[in-house]
Write a structure and sequence with these properties.
two-stranded antiparallel sheet; 4-stranded mixed beta sheet; 8 strands; 2 helices; globular
Length: about 90
């Protein structure tokens, strides 16, 4: 698990962790990533894939193709998201 304070080990399965978090703020965006949507600082498109840059976390988080539209909706953005940089 990556946080603004660094990496942490969590012995819960991602599905168990997902069930314990507030679905109003957290979303599973990839099979191996759950994000706090309030911490999304930037969106990027790279080679057609959506990436989330979280405040205080160095590595961007990939978003699965099947989750992309829901992520954009929950962030209040249109599906086309014209403000995102296409770097690929």
């Amino acid at each position: 698990m990556a946080t603004a304070e660094g990496r942490r080990f969590c012995n819960l399965a991602i599905g168990d962790l997902e069930g314990r978090l507030d679905p109003g703020h957290f979303m599973r965006v990839h099979r191996s990533h759950i994000v706090n949507l309030r911490c999304v600082a930037q969106l990027q498109r790279l080679a057609g894939r959506l990436l989330l840059q979280l405040g205080g976390v160095a590595e961007p988080v990939p978003v699965s193709r099947s989750s992309a539209a829901e992520v954009l909706r929950r962030l209040g953005l249109p599906s086309a998201a014209p403000a995102m940089d296409d770097q690929g």
